[in-house]
Amino acid sequence: MSTFSAVIVENSPETRAEMARLGVVLTPKDGYSMVAVRAADFAGEAMSLASSISTRVSSPVLGIAMQTSVDVYAIEEHHRGTRTRSLVYGRDTGGWEPAQGERRPWEAKLFFSQPRARWKEELEDSDWSEADVEAALGAFDAYDVTKLAKLPRMTAAGFSAFLHHGLGLPPEAAGVIDRRGWLAKLLRFG
Fold this sequence. Notes:
Layout: E1 3-10, H1 13-21, E2 32-38, H2 42-54, E3 61-67, E4 72-79, E5 82-90, E6 95-96, E7 100-101, H3 106-112, H4 116-124, H5 130-142, H6 156-166, E8 175-178, H7 182-187
Parallel strand pairs: 2-8
Antiparallel strand pairs: 1-2, 1-3, 3-4, 4-5, 5-6, 5-7
């Protein structure tokens, strides 16, 4: 089982300054940086922190959370303190909850970052008909989420491909923000 939550920020001078205020030093680089969030309410704290950071920087901030043992994944985008997009997937709760907000450019990376053959296998292993799979492959080839009749299930492999191939993030977080209480830290919970 893997439980993980983080914020993903654009690595800019203003974002580096904000992260330093929170105790995380980001090295200058192009693209995005992922900062792990340790907390008892791992998903809630990541989303709250993304919202808070977004009030102090000009670029959007993503909050992400996943629990791979039960295939639960959440992504929220925050800009200027407002949640602009929310996608939540739960295998045991029927798949994708209704999305909140307008589609965002990173969604193509979320759904199309795996190799085409692997993505096709995952569609074939789920409840997609042959015609639905072929139509979805057309959306994959066009790199266009709007051409999908429905959203495919999310898996650990798909989420990992989004983070590491789609967004270009390294496997390790650039830093950690620890939001656990003192007792949890003392007892090493969370």
